[in-house]
Amino acid sequence: MSEQLGLVFLTLFVLAAAACIFLSVTMARRVQMGINQWCNEERQALETQLRELAVADARVQIERWKQQHEQKIRLDAIQRSSAVTRGKVTEHIVPYLPGFDLDPKDIRFLGTPIDLIAFKGLNAAVEEIEIVFIEVKTGGSVLSARERAVKKAVEQKRVSWRVFNPDVEVDRQKIPIAAEAT
């Protein structure tokens, strides 16, 4: 009987040891999971704080840059605006400036895509006149793409004359009125 009792105690001891090992492993896993979760939460919180600090720092740097360069930016904007205004005014008065070799009475202002068109000799009642396209440039300005296209068309003599009489043309084409377009 004592042998049986010893065997029962040994079995209970082995079962208790197995239960302890199981509980120890289970607890270790739970503790590790808790530590991992805490680490992830802390990392995310630190990343969020770091991001917020970086954004705040960037805003401060932008404001500092604005304060340091605001005067220069304003001065540049004023200079650009002044240059544009000077150019627009010059376009209108250039026919009256010394050195302009055409009669101001022969000049018509267009503005865009070219500034002026001159009908040289028209005021002098000459039979054959010359038509001159004029683009006024001040400072370091250059021709725009549209102005270059007009210049090229004139140079390649792709210029034509048309007469349009709305009384005749509208009657011939029978342009429908919105109510009749059904």
What would your notes on this structure say?
With 182 residues, the protein is mainly alpha-helical. The chain has two domains: 1-97; 101-168, no CATH class. The chain has three helices and three strands; from the N terminus they run H-E-E-E-H-H. The protein has helices at residues 2-93, 145-155, 166-173; strands at 107-109, 116-120, 130-134. Strands 1-2-3 form a three-stranded antiparallel sheet, with no helix packed on it. A hairpin with a 6-residue loop joins strand 1 (107-109) and strand 2 (116-120). The chain is rod-shaped.
SSE string, helix = H, strand = E? Answer: HEEEHH
Number of strand elements: 3
User: Main β-sheet, in a few words?
Assistant: 3 strands, antiparallel
Helix segment tally: 3
- Structural domains: how many: 2
Integer average pLDDT: 86
Q: What percent of residues are in strands?
A: 5-15%
Enumerate the strands of the largest sheet in spatial order, edge to edge or round the barrel: 1-2-3
Percent of residues in helices: 55-70%
Q: Report the radius of gyration as a whole number of Å.
A: 45 Å
Oligomer: single chain
**Structural class assignment:** mainly alpha
Low-confidence stretches: none
Quote the distance from N terminus to C terminus: 115 Å
Spatial shape = rod-shaped
